[in-house]
Specification:
two-stranded antiparallel ribbon, eleven-stranded mixed beta sheet, alpha/beta, 468 residues, 13 strands
Length: 468
Amino acid sequence: MTASASAVDLLAALAAGEMSAVELTGSCLDRIAAVDPAIGAVLAVLPDAHDQAAASDAYRRSHPPRPLEGVPVLVKDNIAVNGLPTTAGSRALAESRPDDAPLVTRLRGAGAVIVAKTNLSEWANFRSTHSTSGWSAVGGQTRNPHDLARTPSGSSSGSGAAIAAGLAPLAVGTETDGSIIMPAAVCGIVGVKPTLGTVPGAGIVPISSAQDTAGPMTRSLADAALLLAVLTGTNVPDLSRATLQGARLGLWTPDGIDAASAEVLQRAADALANAGATVTSVQLDAATLEGDEWPALLTEFRAEIDAYLATAPGAAARTLAELVRFNAEDPVELSRFGQEIFEQALDAPPVDDTSYREHRARATQAAQRMIDEALSQDLDAVVTFSNAPAELIDYAAGDQDEVSTTSPAAVAGYPSVTVPAGVAAGLPIGLSFIGTAGTDEGLLGFAAAFEAATRALVRPRLPSGLPS
């Protein structure tokens, strides 16, 4: 397996008998062993990965191949995979071994070889207001393959960094608000946050079922479409004829965007226009959503994490209150940053409280209205920048405030897709395509056409001594 090989190409090679699933999986594991110690993207390897691959080879010999037959996949460690703990990065869940999440059952049913669990920002970056993305007490620090001193962003940090570094062709991340889009963009790969509810959410350590979703993280739109079809149980869309000709796109340039990222965004807008799209300016006021989104998330997290911990096998805490006490007594958990968000959630009103219901209703409706009103200007999608250049890892300061464009789609439950758009200061910048509910396939098509027109994917230059 080459580090840049796509899942589509690997499937063709497997079908032609040029390699076996056992050989492909062995190559993937060899690359993880050689490269990942410097990056810290992989938290644990499945002990039966070789057996899964051998079973896939046997299946291929006597059956028509399934959509992901023999292809290695990485899964974020807040998603339950039988054979390893599901920790969300927390030592309180280090011995928790639930059965496969439904989305993992779909992966296995499609013939995928689940090779490893990826590290994440602990508790999906919902523990501290001064957290450092990519760090967990179980997995340590994940680093950006484009610059090991910089953050991979959160919280699907391990999945994003692993795909950028060529550790596997496919990975699954999760998002509540930005946790697929941001690490994908910061690490220079493709990320898809699907329409809420299209991927089964059971078996994922929760923050909020009103916003949580899993989604693909890959190096190409074709691979993302393939993985998304398996996760959603739908047909793979044909992106071979994807076009921007005649597309009507609204360009959102958020206030406060840094100059280098703004330049990349403008070049992306020019590329869209050159490919046949009509690009007009729109403005979304994402900052207005936080006042209702944040209190709603605190209440939802308190209720949903209590319910999860109550039945999680092997959990060392059964409630959020017990988890707060566990962290305070553990020698590692609070070594980098605190648990202010957990403490705020303990004081949040219950889910039957009128103020909570009002916050959630206002947040969701405002986000949906924001996007729908922009699209009502005869537009097919909104496009915007996905990220600023990756920050330096700084445990004293934590993640710094930055301009974010993920909230409208995240809070609305609408789909978004990020694709590499260029570099600023040598670091990847992504372009996001945002639509209304159920327009996932259309967004994939626009992003695929942009990908074909720009070829902006940049492979990281790994440090000397590591395989390229």
